[in-house]
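Quick note —
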Amino acid sequence: MNDTLANDLPLSDQQDENEVSIDLLQILGLLWSRKFVILAAMVAAAVLAVIKVAFFTADVFTAEGVLYVSNRTEFTQTMENDMVYGSDIDASRMMSETYMEILTTRAFFTDVSKAIGEKYTWEEISSMMSISVVNETELLRITVLSGSAEDAYLVANGIISQAPKKLNEIFDGGEIKVVEAPVFPDEPNGKGLMRLMLIAMMAALVLSCGVIIVLNFFDTTIHRSDDISKRYNISILGEISQ
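Predicted structure written out below.
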């Protein structure tokens, strides 16, 4: 049945389909014949990735702390029999966004700088710290990155200790608690070696294949009689072997 359908196609369409298939097979064959070149490029890319991580990527340490934000104080909760309403949770989440803005101001970072003995300026502390809401809850995660484990721990502690003071100065109706104090980072963060190696090897694979195909496209050397028939659309009557 497939033969019948193929015979029903116009001759030009059949030729185009055959040419596409032949060209694709030729490209695959070309790449396979250069497989060692492609493999060498991938290995070289992986080695370069290892060298970059080992010698040119600095260690980074992370210290984190978690704050709990509520729009009700313990006294208010006791008076209302510790009942938690949906509106309270929504209000706490809205306040979390406001708190995040307050904790990224110059005034707050200046307070932190003073608390740690002005070892870092407020601009440096701002670049070291990031703050985020934990899973859309009333928890705020404070993250500090530094090339020194001691400095990451020092700055994170300064931020965690100063945050409740700063927020309580501005808001009287809420409550801020330290849920998780920063822990001294004993080891640096992972440098993502495997991920970098994979990206480098994939890039080398694509680049090497592209270069091989392009060079072959501009190669005018006649390697066999088929090259003449395809390039000049003529028939070969015979070959003389050397």
